Amino acid sequence: MKKYLILFFVFTLISCSSAKKSSEITTKYVPASNYMNLSCEQLIAEAEVIRARTPGLAAAVDEHRKNQTGVEVVTWVLFWPAAFLLDDGSEMSSELAEAKGQLEAIQQNLYSKKCG
């Protein structure tokens, strides 16, 4: 019974990671006016640059979460006070949210300018 209780405790800790998956990152608001002065070609080029960068950001967020989950389990089991100081990956998550917001702002401008 004690073994099952320990396994339950470990699985509970694993599921309580503070780091988010890339699919859980919400879009950060970026004003469409930031891209209002760009032509259709410039908007498309800017969107392609951001789209090319986004998978790398998402992969970095997911990799950080994967690594952080293991570290959190060990930290909670061995030295629980330090668990409150663990990195939640907010910097990488913020970059991904910003990229998603930029893409939305560009798409709004592409739509309003009736580009392709």
- The total of helices stands at 3
> What shape does the CA trace take?
rod-shaped
> What fraction of the residues are assigned to beta strands by DSSP?
under 5%
- Number-wise, the strands total 0
Average pLDDT works out at 78
Specify the helix fraction band: 55-70%
Q: Could you name the ranges where pLDDT drops below 50 across 5 or more consecutive residues?
A: none
Order of helices and strands: HHH
Walk me through this protein's architecture:
This protein has 116 residues and is an all-alpha fold. 66% of the residues lie in helices and 0% in strands. It has 3 helices and no strands. Helix 1 packs antiparallel against helix 2 (40-78).
Explain the layout of strands and helices:
Layout: H1 2-15, H2 40-78, H3 90-112
What labels describe this entry?
single chain; 116 residues; mainly alpha; 3 helices; rod-shaped
Write a short abstract of this structure.
With 116 residues, the chain is mainly alpha-helical. The chain is built from three helices and no strands. Helix 1 runs antiparallel to helix 2 and helix 2 runs antiparallel to helix 3.
